[in-house]
């Protein structure tokens, strides 16, 4: 049985269902609204696994699902050496979200990561601690800032309402996912010109390490043919 | 006991015989100090854990910091220390690299003769690893720092360059900017022309006064003449020095005509070369690379060296070390003492000996 992991709720689930439906594979939830059970029509040998988008990377890496739908951002953040663990099969054209670095709009002297680095040095000298960047994407942000040569900052964990941390003075800058930038603007933040850390969208991934029987292999290639991905 | 551990304790005993006092810093280290020293990068390299009482702790990523701290608190002078134990390094990119391994170290705190102390440490490590056909690489961060300090430009620019000596790409970008080789970004020009305004309320802890101060600094910097092409060329020539030690020294002496600021640092290298020779090191074949050590931990500020297994580029250095005077200043609360040290990985020694 080929296991296909799909986000269990919201727009991401609906759009995923539509994407598959357009290609002749019907995914549906079964049972009550609250029950996370699903079924697949249009191809035999494929089982639907409904789970949180954040858990899809881990399940793919462990080989407990063969295919999974989740954002590029989550794969890159959660899986070190992700290329060795999963293969992107298709960018699905929705769930667009950019991971960006943003600072207060009032910082008229800061437009580039260059500026942020200089400000971080001065901030540390003035305040006695490092300039704080609130995010839940610790690894991606750290790698990005290392490549950009930014020093004297500290990452503070923020699992939600990240845009509010600056006004609350628990961080000086943030790195978060945005699609339209509206929440950022509403919180008087601006994106650095070279502050795009990752452009993410919903993507269908294949687990490289999942065990496949000969039957599974046949089902997988039939599915790929149906999705026009082979 | 594993071979590596037996080897580690044997090395430590040998260092004790060489006059060092054995110490055992705790495995759990307070995270704030290490974070303060190394910045966010340490989080990518060290395991962090916590409890409600002591807050964030790190599984020791190295011994140097706790040993320096211990010495600065109640060490007698001069002092030599040795230790053997595990260090822990998070690995995010390469599953082949060990996240826990043994380290044996030797650290010397001595203000009398730095060249002799450098040579003692290097010679001891060379002696302990002899027979393994290791290639030694050496460098000197102090020469580069002196060259930066000697540039004819504002203190602000020198501070910015010094801060990024350990980030070569950023260092280069700053040099290009300060020498006018890359134009200033449009956004900067607009800001300096006073074309940037905002009616958005300022949020966060960074105050308007801080913003104004930076803008004033940017204006001052814009009025500053570029660092001359001749100075950049000399600095580039310095960074490209990569020779056996006698030839490197000859080149550095030539370069110090144009970069007089490096004279003292080059003299120190001279003295070190002589001290190494006195201890039986074949300096005529010893490699010296001006750029060496710039991508490692940023506490080394003088002599730096590493020992590598020939034909095994997959392995990290078997031993490495250097001088870290500035670290003792940072941790000494007003005191400082010249210090130099090195670590060996006994696990790699055993592996290489087994492969012979």
Can you walk through the features of this model?
The complex is a heterodimer of chains A (230) and B (356). With 230 residues, chain A is α/β, with parallel strands linked by helices. Chain A has two domains: 2-96 and 201-226, D-Maltodextrin-Binding Protein, domain 2 (3-Layer(aba) Sandwich); 97-200, Periplasmic binding protein-like II (D-Maltodextrin-Binding Protein, domain 2, 3-Layer(aba) Sandwich). In chain A, 33% of the residues lie in helices and 33% in strands. In chain A, strands 4-1-5-12-6 form a five-stranded mixed beta sheet. In chain A, strand 2 (26-30) and strand 3 form a beta hairpin. Chain A is elongated. The two termini of chain A are 19 Å apart. The model of chain A has no long low-confidence stretch (mean pLDDT 92). Chain B folds into two domains: 3-25 and 60-147 and 234-354, Bira Bifunctional Protein, Domain 2 (BirA Bifunctional Protein, domain 2, 2-Layer Sandwich); 155-194 and 210-227, no CATH class. In chain B, the strands form two sheets. In chain B, strands 1-5-6-12-11-10-7-9-8 form a nine-stranded mixed beta sheet, with helices on both faces. Chain B has a three-stranded antiparallel beta sheet with strand order 2-4-3. Chain B has 356 residues and is of the alpha+beta class. Chain B is built from 15 helices and twelve strands. The A-B interface holds A 80-81, 104-109, 111-112, 114, 117-119, 121-123, 126-127, 130, 138-139, 142, 145-146, 149, 151-155, 166-167, 169, 171-172, 187-189, 193 and B 35, 39-41, 43-44, 92-95, 160, 163-164, 167, 169-170, 173, 185, 187-188, 191, 196-198, 200-206, 208, 210-211, 213-215, 218.
């Amino acid at each position: 049985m080929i296991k296909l992991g799909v986000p269990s709720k919201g727009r991401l689930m609906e759009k995923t269902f539509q994407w598959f439906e357009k290609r002749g594979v019907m995914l549906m939830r079964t049972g009550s609204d609250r029950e996370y059970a699903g079924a697949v029509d249009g191809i035999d040998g494929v089982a639907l696994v409904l789970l949180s988008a954040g858990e899809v990377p881990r399940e793919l890496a462990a080989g407990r699902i063969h295919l999974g739908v989740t954002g590029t951002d989550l794969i890159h953040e959660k899986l070190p050496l992700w290329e060795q663990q999963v293969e992107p099969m298709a960018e699905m054209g929705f769930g667009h979200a950019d991971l960006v670095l943003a600072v207060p709009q009032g910082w008229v002297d800061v437009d580039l990561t260059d500026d942020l680095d200089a400000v971080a040095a001065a901030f540390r000298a003035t305040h006695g601690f490092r300039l704080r960047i609130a995010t839940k994407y610790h690894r991606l942000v750290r790698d990005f800032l290392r490549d950009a040569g930014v020093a004297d900052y500290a990452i503070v964990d923020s699992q939600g309402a990240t845009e509010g941390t600056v006004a609350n003075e628990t961080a000086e800058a943030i790195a978060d996912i945005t699609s339209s930038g509206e929440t950022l603007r509403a919180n008087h933040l601006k994106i650095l010109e070279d502050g795009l850390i990752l452009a993410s969208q919903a993507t269908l991934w294949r687990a490289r390490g999942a065990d496949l029987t000969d039957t599974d292999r046949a089902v997988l290639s039939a599915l790929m043919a149906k999705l026009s991905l082979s | 006991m594993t071979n590596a551990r037996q080897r580690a304790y044997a090395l430590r005993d040998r260092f004790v015989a060489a006059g060092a006092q054995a110490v055992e810093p705790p495995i759990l280290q307070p995270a704030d100090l290490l974070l303060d020293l190394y910045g966010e990068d340490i989080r990518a390299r060290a395991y962090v854990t916590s409890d409600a009482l002591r807050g964030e702790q790190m599984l020791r990523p190295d011994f140097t910091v706790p040993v320096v701290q211990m010495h600065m608190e109640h060490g007698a002078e001069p002092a030599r220390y040795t230790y053997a134990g595990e260090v822990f390094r998070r690995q995010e990119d390469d599953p082949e690299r060990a996240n826990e391994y043994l380290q044996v170290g030797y650290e010397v705190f001595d203000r009398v003769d730095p060249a002799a102390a450098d040579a003692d440490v290097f010679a001891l490590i060379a002696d302990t690893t002899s027979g393994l056909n290791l290639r030694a690489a050496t460098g000197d961060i102090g020469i580069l720092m002196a060259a930066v300090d000697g540039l004819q430009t504002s203190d602000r620019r020198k501070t910015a360059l010094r801060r990024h000596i350990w980030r070569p790409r950023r260092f280069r970008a700053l040099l290009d900017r300060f020498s006018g080789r890359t134009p200033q970004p449009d956004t900067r020009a607009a800001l300096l022309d006073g074309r940037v305004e905002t009616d958005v309320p300022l949020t966060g802890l960074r105050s308007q006064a801080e913003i104004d101060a930076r803008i004033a600094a940017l204006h001052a910097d814009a009025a500053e003449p570029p660092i001359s092409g001749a100075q950049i060329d000399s600095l580039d020539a310095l960074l490209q020095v990569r020779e056996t030690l006698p030839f490197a020294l000859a080149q550095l002496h030539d370069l110090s005509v144009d970069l007089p600021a490096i004279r003292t640092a080059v003299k120190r290298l001279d003295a070190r070369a002589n001290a190494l020779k006195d201890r039986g090191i074949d300096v005529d074949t010893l490699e010296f690379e001006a750029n060496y050590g710039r991508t490692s931990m940023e506490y080394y500020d003088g002599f730096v060296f590493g020992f590598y297994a020939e034909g095994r580029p997959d392995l990290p250095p078997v031993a490495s070390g250097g001088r870290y005077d500035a670290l003792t200043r940072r941790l000494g609360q007003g005191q400082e003492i010249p210090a130099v040290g090195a670590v060996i990985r006994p696990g790699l020694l055993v592996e290489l000996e087994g492969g012979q």
